[in-house]
Write a structure and sequence with these properties.
Number of strands of chain A: 22
Largest interface: A-B, 88 and 73 residues
Oligomer: heterodimer
Distance between the termini of chain A: 44 Å
Structural class of chain B: alpha+beta
Helix content of chain A: 25-40%
Helix content of chain B: 25-40%
Number of helices of chain A: 19
Largest sheet of chain B: 9 strands, mixed
Strand order of the largest sheet of chain A: 2-1-5-4-3-6-7
Distance between the termini of chain B: 42 Å
Chain lengths: 680, 682
């Protein structure tokens, strides 16, 4: 049965069921996992992937995983072949160079069979609280190699034909710092895919496996059609943009993301040629992650009306040069690629499209997760502890409304950890949680504001790690709107008066990317997340709106005058009074003066771009690039181009994504298994 | 005569359902809702011509308090929170509604910045005082409230559920300097961990409180003036009832008083027909509301969201809605797929066939076009229905683009609406480890009888039931409901080393609180059922399962161990695995108090003979299975005696509803007049 002759009502009913199954996978995960990174952080995704290794449906959890999930399944299928899959198998894999994003994101893949035929894969990909490596709870901001970031897991079988293979999980959890909790989390992932198995097989039982497969095709076709409609509304043309990653951790060298977005009819090509070469520090974005990010950007043009699946991506073509920041070769470290660079890829693509899609998107957002992790021993509770904060901030303004306050960045979606939970479970004292006033970029519509969070350590010898961004280069405004405020991560030593940045207090090159720094009881940290960029000229914002901003604590009374030309007075009862004539005069004065915030941003951006890493790849990278090229040539010489009859997924040399993302080790092993070269 | 009167004040209509317990006569009446609720209530009583002196009991439910909240029409509230944390009401739990797209509007904070007022002082996680209470900050807050004309304060201080001392002293100070200000304290409203949820719950309680008080006060007064001497009771979100006096104290418990009428009706049916497992589906114009009863107990939820990320933590019957009611709109999306809901044409302009200006086809139009509803006898013939217009609208908007004929397209719309409801039922049963095959399904509300058998078929329920007077059945529910109160207290401790003395003390404290409420209700606590339960989870998890404790407190180590075993079993049922090696935590102690009132609904009078019970017509119906038209028998429900049996395909018509009996189903009229439909051969 094909999607074409499926009855339309059955198609819709089953399509809804796919979404519902993924939701249920997520609820199972939420209700059974241990680590707060899942329960509150929601840093996991659930999906159904079809036998073509294409995403069919997914649930409203963390978007950073989504397209990389299907890529991991694709790698698995190429790695073991379809014959290597059997009912009751459960696979684990996390390697960024095997379709993954970064090491803590461990995908659990369960192939599902109906009547002996492969029906689908249930996939649960989740960010584990620890994956070994040099930093407690991850985020080694100064790693120079993926081997420092933790344990790499190629596809391994935890369950074989329904039987647990405990050696595998023992081996993995021995390399994790919180094995008891993390085994619980693995079991939650397992339960989540078990749920999907039960439901999908029931669906196949009710409608027939053929109909269910046809519905999988139908949902992809449906999303594709909706996506094409949206792309078709954009004017044809090529739109370019530069975004920067302000430093890489080990050094303060910035990196450039250059994008060229070409719209032709109902298709769009996103090309990252011109991007800096891969970085020494942990800011490299694996190919899978770059794909996820580019797709995420395009989906921001749409909304919840489009079910997220591979159909959305058919009209979107992404290329990223191998050896660059956005398609690195091993052993480049990748941790921050998933949490930081991904957001900036989205900012770059949206920045390029903003001039022609102003009715759908807006200015840049705070642009980071401001990952702050660490741990040590809590003497009061008699146990080791680890913590991992990842934070919200302000979103960019768009033409029709102000930016959202305190909202997770576009590559995440999470709950915060309640103050009362943090204090009940960790040796931390929360000192403050408030809106970060004046952090939203001024504009006709204003950027959303971030938050200020302040905590004090109640334990001795606490290791801290960080991986953040946009502490130096703030988020851009659009259409004359001003940039938002940059993010801040500050420390105040016990007994000291003032706050200092990380480089002011420690031997660190970056204010947000660091590892293994030691802090002590009584030391306090303040994380002030930035706001979104503004949209349009702030002098055109109504005085009434500015007055409300001041009354709501979003804009200070001085900023109201200096940025908006709104001369206001606040009464003791909190009410704000507008001085109209003074405001008129102030606005006239500001209108004739240079727009300093815009000018400052322009200069800063130009200087930063000037310094970005460029040039030829490092010798080790160049050597790996040559190895890959020669293996591909060798494979083609031995195996030929293939005629495709064995199926696209049995032949990586016919597969565009495999050819641009596999490393030499994967290629070599694959060729050896197919007898095209010697094993070993 | 002695009338039992149930009244449901909805957003548009005030429904009355009354039973004369002597004659068995039933009265159903409707009036327009008035802003104060009481005007409409008095009007409907008058319309029904029930002499006030002959009212034996009166139960009242209303969505008005919640509607006022959603529409922002409640009195302003000031939020008094721990200094440096008052913005938590705007920060919330962050979480955005959709992964992609910028069209979303983040809901406004419950309380504006100028009324989020800092209280100095700090309690720590162990209940210890880290910084003393700053009395001056209380005075400053009162001054700000005064200058803003705000007379209601919600106080939520960090860790007040561990140590309420600061909150109590804030309350005392305000009583001293501003006795007219109403103060609600978070440790009383919701003594559970999680400062944002506790704060939002307290603020919402404070916002509802003046309106609920005014409404209930006026209600009591007007009824007394009119000569009603019977006790007046209020239906609560948990499906139970309480006195007006207790309801005034606990406004949150009226949060979902409207849908709870259906819950109470379903509980009553579960008992009277001995159907311990029952799924209730209330289908109105805009939504279908579902509740689940297992072993005679309603599934409960411990929180509800007022808007995105604005939670209220209160025990309530778990009633969930899907936008698939009679007014739900059918469309073809830009990629050519048929969709039903969630948008609704409501009652104005309503479905196309109503002829009130509706132009987009709805589920009701599809029902008419498929022949499931007889356009000539809609609402007992009291309302003219334009079947031609319904057909034309479906043809243009749905059938032609899909390449189907009008009837097939209509049947498809009905099937899709059925599937959406079935999906919700699946989420509430299958996902909770419950098997719908063990359940009966009762369909009520205007559309319930149309879908009951179709839904039972789809979810494989054992049978479908349509009660008497299905359209106003909700209003009836509270009449025979139990008095029901729920209480909780945060514990957060390892189950193996639980402080049993402290637990016993908590149990006593909850019981005392319950006794106060019961006495206010006029019930004797001695006759009440006190059921304790523990919220448990594996150490490290964040979601709990509620596990009943056996017998009265105090609880021994053995009792806690038994609860632990029950927890493991329930965890396995719900989540397909146990973790025998992991320790378990107790998060909260719960107490559910029920006073059974021993009333059983009198049966309605049915025809005494089989003589009248014959089909009144035949017509062609396109059932949603897509199999083409079938010639179906049409019956008039009023003519069907107990024990009468009908085979599908058929429809049974009555005043405001039509019961659909698909092919392969048989219908039997139960002794109480309910229509019970089962699959042939089952």
């Amino acid at each position: 049965m094909s999607a074409r002759n499926l009855d339309p009502v059955t198609g819709t009913v089953v399509a809804n069921a796919f979404g519902s199954i993924c939701e249920e996978m997520g609820h199972t995960m939420l209700r059974t996992s241990n680590s707060s990174v899942f329960v509150e952080g929601r840093d996991f995704s659930c999906a159904i992937v079809d036998p073509e290794a294409e995403l069919v449906a997914s649930a409203n959890f963390d978007p950073s995983h989504l397209s990389a999930m299907a890529l991991t399944v694709e790698y698995l299928m190429l790695h073991v072949g379809e014959d290597g899959l059997q009912p009751g198998d459960v696979w684990l894999v996390n390697d960024p160079y095997r379709g993954g994003g970064h090491l803590p994101d461990i995908a659990l893949i369960r192939p599902l069979f109906a009547d002996g035929d492969l029906l689908a894969f249930a996939v649960n990909r989740a960010h584990h609280i620890d994956i070994g490596g040099m930093a407690v709870a991850g985020f080694s901001g100064t790693a120079r190699s993926i081997f420092q970031e933790g344990l790499r897991i190629p596809p391994v079988r935890w369950y074989v034909a329904g039987q647990e293979n405990p050696d595998v999980i023992d081996m993995i959890t021995l390399n994790m710092r919180f094995p008891r909790d993390q085994i619980g989390d693995f079991r939650a992932q397992f339960a989540s895919t078990h749920t999907a198995e039960t439901r999908l097989l029931k669906l196949a039982d009710k409608y027939g496996a053929g109909v269910v497969r046809a519905c999988m095709d139908e949902v992809k076709d449906h999303s594709e059609a909706l996506m094409r409609n949206i792309i078709a509304e954009l004017p044809d043309g090529t739109y370019e943009f530069d975004e920067v990653i302000e430093d890489d951790g080990p050094s303060d060298t910035p990196y450039r993301i250059h994008v060229s977005v070409s719209v032709t009819g109902d298709e769009v090509a996103i090309d990252f040629a011109g991007t800096s070469p891969q970085a020494e520090g942990p800011i490299n974005s694996s190919y899978g992650n770059t794909l996820s990010s580019a797709f995420n950007a395009v989906l921001q043009l749409a909304g919840p009306e489009i079910a997220f699946n591979n159909g959305c991506f058919r009209p979107v073509h992404v290329s990223a040069p191998r050896g660059s920041l956005l398609n690195p070769v091993p052993p480049a470290p990748c941790f921050g690629g998933v949490t930081e660079v991904t957001i900036r890829i989205i900012d770059a693509v949206l920045g390029a499209l903003a001039p022609v899609a102003g009715d759908r998107i807006g200015a840049a957002s705070y642009g980071t997760c401001i990952n702050f992790s660490g741990g040590g021993h809590d003497a009061a509770r008699g146990e080791d502890f680890g913590f991992y904060f990842f934070l919200e901030g302000g979103w960019g303004a768009c033409a029709w409304r102000d930016g959202w306050n305190c909202t997770p960045n576009p590559t995440s979606n999470f709950n915060d950890y309640p103050v009362e939970w943090v204090e009940t479970t960790l040796p931390l004292r929360y000192e403050e949680l408030r809106l970060n006033s004046d952090s939203g970029g001024a504009g006709h519509t204003r950027g959303g504001v971030g938050t200020v969070r302040q905590v004090t350590l109640l334990a001795d010898d606490v290791e801290i790690n960080g991986l953040g961004e946009r502490a130096k280069v703030p988020p851009y405004g659009i259409d004359g709107g001003y940039p938002g405020a940059a993010n801040q991560l500050l420390i105040r030593r016990a007994g000291a008066e003032g706050w200092q940045t990380i480089p002011e207090n420690f031997a660190a090159a970056s204010p947000t990317k660091f590892h293994g720094l030691m802090a002590q009881r009584g030391d306090s940290f303040r994380i002030a997340s930035g706001g979104g960029g503004g949209c349009g000229d702030p002098l055109s914002r109504t005085l009434e709106d500015v007055a409300v901003d001041v009354e709501e604590g979003l804009v200070g009374i001085e900023a109201a005058a200096e940025l908006y030309g709104a001369v206001l007075e606040q009464n003791p009862d909190g009410r704000v009074v507008i001085d109209r004539s003074a405001s008129e005069a102030k606005r006239a004065e500001l209108a004739n003066a240079p727009r300093e915030p815009l000018e400052r941003y322009r200069v800063l951006m130009a200087e930063t771009l000037e310094r970005t890493a460029s040039g030829e790849p490092a010798p080790a990278v160049a050597a790996e690039l040559r190895r890959i090229e020669s293996l591909i040539e060798r494979g083609r010489a031995t195996l030929g181009q293939g005629d495709g009859s064995a199926g696209r997924l049995n032949h990586p040399l016919l597969n565009e994504k495999a050819l641009v993302s596999w490393d030499s080790e994967a290629l070599r092993r694959w060729l050896a298994r197919r007898g095209a070269m010697d094993e070993g | 005569m002695a009338f039992h009167v149930g009244i449901d004040v909805g957003g548009t209509f005030t429904d009355l359902f009354a039973l004369d317990d002597v004659s068995g006569r039933a009265i159903a009446e409707k009036a327009d809702t008035t802003a104060d609720a009481v005007g409409g209530l008095m009007a409907v009583l008058e319309k029904a011509a029930i002499p006030p002196g002959e009212i034996a009991s009166l139960v009242f439910g209303s969505t008005l308090a919640t509607n006022a909240l959603i529409e922002g029409k409640t009195a302003p509230v000031a939020f008094l929170g721990t200094a440096r944390f008052t913005d938590s009401l705007e920060v919330r739990r962050l979480w955005r509604e959709h992964l992609f797209g910028w069209r979303w509007e983040r809901p406004k904070a419950l309380v504006p910045h100028a009324l989020r007022l800092p209280i100095g002082g700090r309690i720590g996680p162990g209940g210890e005082e880290l910084a003393p209470l700053d009395m001056a900050s209380i005075d400053a807050a009162v001054e700000r409230m005064r200058s803003r004309g705000v007379a209601c304060a919600a106080v939520c201080l960090l860790f007040a559920f561990r140590n309420p001392d600061h909150e109590r002293r804030v309350c005392e100070r305000i009583a001293e300097i501003a006795p007219d200000i109403r103060v609600l304290l978070s440790h009383e409203i919701n003594p559970e961990i999680g400062e944002y949820e506790r704060a939002s719950t307290t603020v919402i309680a404070a916002a509802m409180s003046p309106g609920v008080e005014a409404m209930l006060g006026a209600l009591e007064m007007r009824l007394a003036e009119a000569g009603v001497r019977a006790p007046v009771r209020v239906i609560k979100s948990n499906g139970g009832i309480t006195s007006v006096a207790t309801a005034r104290k606990k406004p949150l418990e009226m949060m979902r008083s409207g849908p709870a009428g259906g819950v109470a009706s379903a509980l009553n049916l579960s008992r009277s027909l001995a159907r311990p497992n029952l799924i209730g589906v209330d289908i109105g114009g805009t939504t279908a509301d579902v509740c689940v009863i297992t072993g005679g107990e309603i599934s409960v939820a411990q929180r509800v969201e007022l808007a995105w990320d604005i939670p209220v933590r209160v025990t309530l019957a778990d009633v969930r809605s899907v936008g698939a009611g009679g007014g739900s709109i059918a469309t073809i999306d830009p990629a050519g797929r048929l969709q039903v809901g969630p948008h609704s044409a409501g009652s104005a302009p309503g479905p196309v066939c109503y002829g009130r200006g509706g132009t987009v086809p709805t589920v009701t139009d599809a029902m008419v076009a498929a022949g499931l509803v007889d356009s000539g006898r809609f609402l007992g013939g009291r309302m003219a229905v334009d079947a031609g217009a319904a057909r034309a609208a479906i043809e243009d908007a749905i059938a032609t683009p899909l390449g189907l004929d009008v009837e097939a397209a209509s049947a498809g719309i009905v099937r899709l609406a059925t599937a959406r409801m079935a999906q919700l039922i699946g989420e509430m049963t299958v996902q909770a480890g419950l098997d719908p095959r063990d359940y009966s399904l009762v369909g009520f509300g205007g559309g319930g009888p149309l879908f009951a058998a179709l839904l039972a078929d789809e979810i494989e329920a054992a049978e479908a039931i349509v009660p008497c007077y299905p359209a106003v059945w909700s209003a009836f529910g509270g009449l025979f409901a139990d008095i029901a109160h729920d209480y909780a207290h945060s514990v957060v401790a390892d189950a193996a080393s639980l402080d049993l003395d402290a637990l016993a003390a908590d149990a006593v404290a909850l019981r005392e609180e319950a006794s106060t409420d019961l006495e206010r209700d006029g019930s004797d606590p001695e006759g009440a059922c006190f059921d304790y339960a523990l919220d448990m989870r594996y150490a490290g998890q964040s979601h709990e399962l509620t596990i009943p404790l056996t017998g009265p407190p105090p609880y021994s180590e053995g009792a806690i161990a038994d609860a632990g075993k029950a927890f493991e079993r329930q965890h396995e049922t719900a989540f397909a695995h146990r973790r025998p090696g992991d320790s378990r935590e107790v998060i909260a102690l719960r107490l559910a108090v029920r006073v059974a009132r021993g009333l059983v609904a009198p049966t309605v009078s049915l025809p005494a003979t089989f003589d009248t019970a014959e089909q009144i017509a035949r017509r062609a119906i396109w059932f949603p299975d897509g199999g083409g038209p079938l010639e179906a028998s049409v019956f008039d429900r009023a003519l069907l005696p107990a024990g009468y049996e009908v085979s599908g395909p058929a429809v049974v018509e009555e005043g405001q509803s039509t019961t659909v009996l698909p092919q392969g189903f048989a219908l039997r009229v139960a002794d109480g007049g309910e229509l019970v439909m089962t699959r042939d051969g089952s």
